[in-house]
């Protein structure tokens, strides 16, 4: 078994690169089937969020996985390799545990990534690409995350992307309470953002979604209205603040749509936060004079503020992870013994079955039971001892000391 993690995240690449390597939820099942069909890849899982795309594999050839990622995303290996990290074995397990615990997140200690990892595990299980190794990694990652959150205060008072969005909006507008806010999408991140903005008492909350039913469910929680994405061109000009996070493969708000909205608003500013990868708002929209557009990368400095005070909590969390990585190593080592243990048990079972069959035949022929049992016992002992005795008799002089020590330990032949 060889655990491998190949990925890109907000540390190694800007959003313009990350969005080119991202997988939408609809793409993941097919991608998993393709990846696991590659030579040397026996297990696979894909984690793809706004901050990272990572391939978790049980694979012998890292370059095969790298080539697959480049090919399936339509890029050359040379183009994407500078932005990637490749981790193996214990380093890969440590990374998975840190990600699950929120230590590798833009928002230190955030919990959303744990749900995204559970989604990735579920996708892989449904696709049939989750085997013994990846199951062991993911289940341990979930357990480590729980332990870290229970034993440390790593997530206490963390500045979320949602809270950061509110902070930035309040730098542009005197008060959110005087603003009309539009949320595009109806997923977990949008709901979190809506909760934070709703606490500031905005003049109006509107949710735009592909399906009106899902949008209405979210809008009703905050006393707002729901509209369809198709309504955006005619409604965008109404809103002072726009927050978007969808899984759309192409931008929803283009430069032309934004220009028409600004003209209708007589160039009153619009504050936009695009939390999606790939982006929901065309990059060129940020060039417009009266649009203040922020992406997930732009929020990084805001969410980092105040996190230095939790350095001690990070240290405690890292100590827990180091210990659990040691447990993982021992588990993997024990799994390597399984084929030999299985073969040894099969060997013993064959001897027992053969000798038992011989004894039954003798008893059926009317032979003395005591004599049959004595012969059965003697033959069993001889057959079991044949292989180790033959090995001892044929051991080379230079290997004799180590072989004797091993045999005495295996059979508990104490001095």
Helix share, percent? 40-55%
Average pLDDT taken over every residue: 92
Instruction: Look at the helices and sheets and give the structural class.
Output: alpha/beta
The CA-CA distance between the termini, in Å, is 38 Å
Shape designation: elongated
Low-confidence stretches: none
Give the DSSP E fraction (strand runs of 2 or more residues). Answer: 5-15%
| Tally of helical segments | 16
Give the biggest beta sheet.
6 strands, parallel
SSE succession: EHHEEHHEHHHHEHEHEHEHEEHHHH
Pfam families: GlutR_dimer (PF00745), GlutR_N (PF05201), Shikimate_DH (PF01488)
Subunit structure: Homodimer.
Function: Catalyzes the NADPH-dependent reduction of glutamyl-tRNA(Glu) to glutamate 1-semialdehyde (GSA).
Pathway: Porphyrin-containing compound metabolism; protoporphyrin-IX biosynthesis; 5-aminolevulinate from L-glutamyl-tRNA(Glu): step 1/2
Structural topology:
Layout: E1 3-9, H1 15-21, H2 28-36, E2 41-48, E3 52-59, H3 62-72, H4 77-80, E4 85-88, H5 89-101, H6 112-127, H7 132-151, H8 161-172, E5 180-184, H9 188-198, E6 204-209, H10 212-221, E7 225-228, H11 232-235, E8 241-244, H12 255-264, E9 270-274, E10 291-295, H13 300-304, H14 311-364, H15 369-393, H16 400-410
Parallel strand pairs: 5-6, 5-8, 6-7, 8-9, 9-10
Antiparallel strand pairs: 1-3, 1-4, 2-3
Helix pairs in contact: 2-6, 5-7, 5-14, 6-7, 7-14, 8-9, 14-15
InterPro entries: 4pyrrol_synth_GluRdtase, 4pyrrol_synth_GluRdtase_dimer, 4pyrrol_synth_GluRdtase_N, GluRdtase_CS, GluRdtase_dimer_dom_sf, GluRdtase_N_sf, NAD(P)-bd_dom_sf, Shikm_DH/Glu-tRNA_Rdtase
EC number: 1.2.1.70
Binding site for NADP(+): 185-190
């Amino acid at each position: 078994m060889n655990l491998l993690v190949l990925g890109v995240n907000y540390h190694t690449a800007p959003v313009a690169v990350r969005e080119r390597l991202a997988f939408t939820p609809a793409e993941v099942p097919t991608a998993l089937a393709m990846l696991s069909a590659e030579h040397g890849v026996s297990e696979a899982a894909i984690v793809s969020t706004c901050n990272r795309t990572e391939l978790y594999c049980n694979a012998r050839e890292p370059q095969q996985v790298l080539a697959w990622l480049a090919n399936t995303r339509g890029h050359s290996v040379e183009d994407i390799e500078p932005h990637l990290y490749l981790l193996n074995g214990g380093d890969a397990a440590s990374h998975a545990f840190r990600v699950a615990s929120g230590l590798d997140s833009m928002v230190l200690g955030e919990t959303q990534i744990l749900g995204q990892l559970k989604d990735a595990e579920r996708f892989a299980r449904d696709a049939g690409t989750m085997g013994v190794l990846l199951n062991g990694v993911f289940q341990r990652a979930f357990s480590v995350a729980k332990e870290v959150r229970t034993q440390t205060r790593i997530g206490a008072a963390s500045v979320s992307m949602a809270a950061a969005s509110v902070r930035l909006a309040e730098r542009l507008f005197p008060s959110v309470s005087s603003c009309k806010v539009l949320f595009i999408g109806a997923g977990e991140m949008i709901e979190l953002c809506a909760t934070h903005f709703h606490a500031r008492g905005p003049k109006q909350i509107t949710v735009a979604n592909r399906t009106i039913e899902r949008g209405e469910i979210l809008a009703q929680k905050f006393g707002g209205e729901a509209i369809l994405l198709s309504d955006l061109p005619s409604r965008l000009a109404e809103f002072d603040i726009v927050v978007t996070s969808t899984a759309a493969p192409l931008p929803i708000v283009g430069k032309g749509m934004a220009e028409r909205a600004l003209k209708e608003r007589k160039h009153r500013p619009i504050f936009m936060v695009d939390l999606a990868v790939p982006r929901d708002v065309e990059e060129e929209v940020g060039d417009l004079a009266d649009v203040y557009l922020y992406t997930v990368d732009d929020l990084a400095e805001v969410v980092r503020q105040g996190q230095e005070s939790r350095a001690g909590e990070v240290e405690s969390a890292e100590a827990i992870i180091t210990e659990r990585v040691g447990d993982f190593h021992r588990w993997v080592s024990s799994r390597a013994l399984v084929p030999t243990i299985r073969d040894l048990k099969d060997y013993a079972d064959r001897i027992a079955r053969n000798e038992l069959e011989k004894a039954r035949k003798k008893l059926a022929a009317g032979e003395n039971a005591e004599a049959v049992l004595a012969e059965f016992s003697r033959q069993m002992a001889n057959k079991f001892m044949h292989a180790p005795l033959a090995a001892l008799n044929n051991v080379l002089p230079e290997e004799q000391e180590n072989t004797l020590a091993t045999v005495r330990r295996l059979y508990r032949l104490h001095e």
